[in-house]
Each structure stands twice: as C-alpha cells, then as structure tokens.
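Example (one chain per record):
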Amino acid sequence: MISVSIEGPLATIALDAPATRNALGLVGWQALADAVEQVAASSARALILRSAAPGMFCSGSNLREIAALADHADLRAPFRRAMRDAMEPLAALPIATIALVEGDCFGAGVALALACDMRIASPRAAFAVTPAKLGITYPQEDVARLVALIGRGQAARMLYGAGRIDADEAARIGLVEVLADDAVAVAQGLAGQVAANAPGSVASLKAMVLRDSPSPQFDAAFDQAFAGADFCEGLAAFRERRTPAFEDVAPIDANHTRS
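Predicted structure:
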C-alpha cells in the first residue's frame, strides 16, 4: 500500500493502492505514519511524496471506512487521530518535502499535499476539498494549512463550494508552486538541489518557515552558524569553485510538533 525508498540523500514515499486511487483507510494512515518515521530516522535530506501508479495522487480517505463512522462512534476519534498521526509528523519533518501530484488530489489527498513544503504538479492534476459534499468537516490543522497557503478567500471557495479545480487554476491561486509537463523530472531536480545544501541550514530555515512568530532561538541560530563547520565548508567550496560536501546531521524525531 505504501513503500519507502531511500537512495543516498533522497527519500521517496509512494502511495500504491491504484484500485482505490490511493484512498487511505485506517491501516493506510498508520502505514504512512510508519513510512514518515522511517524517513525521519534516515539520513535523507529531501523527500518526494508521490503515487506509485501514474495518473493519480490520492483520492482522500477510504469512503467505505468513512461511511462506517456513521454507525460506529467509537471509531471516529481513532480515525481522526490516525490521520493526524501521519500528517503532523510529515509536516514537521526537518527536511524538505515535495508532493508530486500527477492526477487526482481530492479530500484528504489535498491535506496530504498541504503537509508537504512544496507541491509540483503535472497538467493532469486536479484538486478538490470535498467534505461539505458529504456533510462532514475537515481536520482543523488541514484547514489552517490551506488558509495559510492560499488565503481565506480561496480556501473558503474550495471548502464551501467543494468544487474541482484543474492544475492551471491550482497554480494561479498558489495551491501548486510549480506546474510542469515533466513534473517528475522537476521534482527530482528540486529534491537533488535541496539535498546538495547544508542539512542543518535547511532544517533551521524550515523551522522559521513553519513558525508563526519570531523567536530568539532563530537569532541565536543565525549568529552561531558562522562558527559552524557547514559555513567553513560552504565558504571554502565557494572560493575553490567546487560543490560543497556537507556532513549529515543527526536524524530528528518526526513526532515533534509544530510550534
């Protein structure tokens, strides 16, 4: 259902349930959480989240399991927590994360893409946030990420109207950062570009991007970086006109939460 591959500094998590267009049930969300934990424990410097099957990304949560929640109140909170336990560690990974969207990205699939730092889509991609069509809501963390990315008005349009938008419209409103015919090559190129940079710098920059307010710890990190080995290596590589060789940093627990 979900596979993890790590090749040098690049990690890939692939959703592989084409029969349901990668819809995730309770077991699927738990498997995704395990996959994220595996990446967090590795020395990977960038992650691509994609579908193993072409022409799709994720059609959301498994409709059969969602339907069962109507009659089983005891399953509702565990299902919500399973989604959160996958999404939040993904969002909090201290490495760059890229959602590669080559087809349908609906419901919780959009939330999954939002949990990544960047979204790269092919022209075949389509997006919809559809809980209002089913008479349900959306997890609050996912609403917050949608609003932060595309603004209140566009988020309201997607949430309240629950309509489908194509890849061009997604790029226009900022839901997608890059729209490319060869989205795979672009995603892999960007991941490689990030992986070549200092992992400690990327982790610190990501922490600042995710934080909603200033913090003295970031001022201290800025000052201290000039005495670090990464700056020494980066400066030497610049002067010598070569590619820097940055050391890996210790893996960070993926269960840490956003501040």
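Caption: The radius of gyration is 19 Å.
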